[in-house]
Amino acid sequence: MAFESNVDIEHPVHDLRTEAMKNFELKGFPSKKEEAWKYTSLNSLQKIDFSIFPKEENALEYKEVKKYFLHEIDSYKIVFIDGIYSSYLSETTHDGVDICLMSSALTKPMYRPVIDVYFNKIASKDESLTTLNTAFSREGAYIYIPKNKMPKKPVEIIHFSTGNEASLLLQPRNLIIAEENAELQVIERHQSLTSNEVLTNSVTEIFAADNAIVDYYKIQNDAENASLIDNTYIDQKSKSAVSVHTFSFGGKLTRNNLNFYQNGQHVDSTMKGVTILGNKQHVDHHTLVHHIEPNCESHQDYKGIYGENATGVFNGKIIVDKIAQKTNAFQQNNNLLVSDKATINTKPQLEIFADDVKCSHGCTIGQLDEDALFYLQSRGIPKKEARALLMYAFANNVLASVRIPEVKARINKLIAKKLGVNLGFDL
Amino acid sequence: MLKITDLHAGIEDKEILKGINLEVNAGEVHAIMGPNGSGKSTLSAVIAGKEEFEVTKGSVELNGEDLDEVSPEERAHKGVFLSFQYPVEIPGVSVTNFIKTAINESRKARGLEEMPANKMLKLIREKSELLDIDRRFLSRSLNEGFSGGEKKRNEIFQMAMLEPKLAILDETDSGLDIDALRIVANGVNKLKSKDNAVIVITHYQRLLEYIVPDFVHVLHNGKIVKSGGKELALELEEKGYDWLKNEAVV
Asked: In what residue span(s) does the ABC transporter domain sit (chain B) (predicted)?
């Protein structure tokens, strides 16, 4: 491989990159033989000859892509086009908080103390796709919220791919730090603008210090040939609350590796997801919550609706260490299969070493409730619309914890659109 | 309006209705009473068109049209309304949005334009006042977390909005305290006219003190074993159902 020519060997994280590259070469891409990848094959993606660094910069007009932004409200924006930062579409800030670029955080000396403490500290050193990202990523979002601060508005991180490359591999890298008592809301989206192949292998590290609150929303509604591997690592200190909502409606293959590490007491971790798939789409949610300290909570609620030939995976792992007494871990995964050919594999994995814990988990796979269907029909709503309305209600249930009303409204609309609910009500 | 002739219906080989004959005309209120398991709820579900039940013999006609092949939504469009004993919870869809959808679907089926928003709001206001319904209630998710009384009141609110020709109230009184019962009954009475008909299905005579029937029918073991005027309900209250069971055997 001839990437070295594109890599700055003087870079402060060069050693990390070299080590990561070594680890990746040792392991290679994960295969279906590995338990964690049993139901998700990357074979078809590996056959594609991806460009790793885009050859040229591409520009986009705001009006072309406005609909992908949360344009109803004001937000900070960190926007990338084919992996390259677009200052034209972005709005960054250094006013009391840092909402800017990973590349500048990695190169400018003033950020060095933060980088030294946080960069690549919670991300896995041996998970192969994470190491691949560590080795090659150059760009992403850098967000640093100091003690007691809260940005004036939410942050949107958006990656566009223009299709100017026949096939593109993107490796964004985000570092997000909320110091003590800080608060932050982030919306992340990957959007391909053509039907060309795109594979995004993203790594995000989130650090929430004592009492910090971070809400993270992932909107995965990409084009038909876009695939995403999302590796998110979250480190939480005492009394922090972090929530990640993942909305998976689009794309070809999506793999979410969401890892929470509770390194403090009275931590609250929330993972919610709505997945609605059709065609031959595939989504794999792998969650991990590691309860390391006592008196913490975790809440997981994933809803999935699978039609046509879609396939889904939910694998929720909860580890409760021996000292993590009084843990309260809740996990729920409910699925609707609305076609005979759709498949879901759901698997809770509980490893509990403490004896005074409350752990509940449940997964269901079912069809729509006939009594509910009859109720709607008896009010004059045709069967097809009634089915769509019930699916909408099933998925919508997860949105109660979304704290930005405009995000909630947007997701509601995406759900309604995806399900073909066209009942004319104001969402 | 409604003509049921020798109706036999059941579910998975089990016959529940065993030859029902019933005629309901516009302007009339009929009460169908009977012990648990007599087939009351099945009868209401069959009239509303629940596909789970199979009609094996006989017919249900609405204004001369056999309803056998007619879907539940088409029956609704033709003016049939069923107030459910156990209304279904639909999270994420407000009472207002639900009723708007239902009204506009019925209008669409009849070849009418959607109801203009201002007219819809006015109608909602009028009907909710009729049933003493709080405005905040209307923006809540349909039936989600509603008390028993709220659910029933919401059913009658939907009935008021949809203005059916034939309304079937299935155990609308169950789970209601006396005040809620009075409000619901009062609402039904105000909606009654010479052009529509109401079938009240109930286990107890209590509701019939407020919604006074023209006819009372007693259902037992899938058949109407006795019909009479409103005084029959009082008689049942006094004597229970056992004397009728014996009579039916004879």
From this structure: 2-246
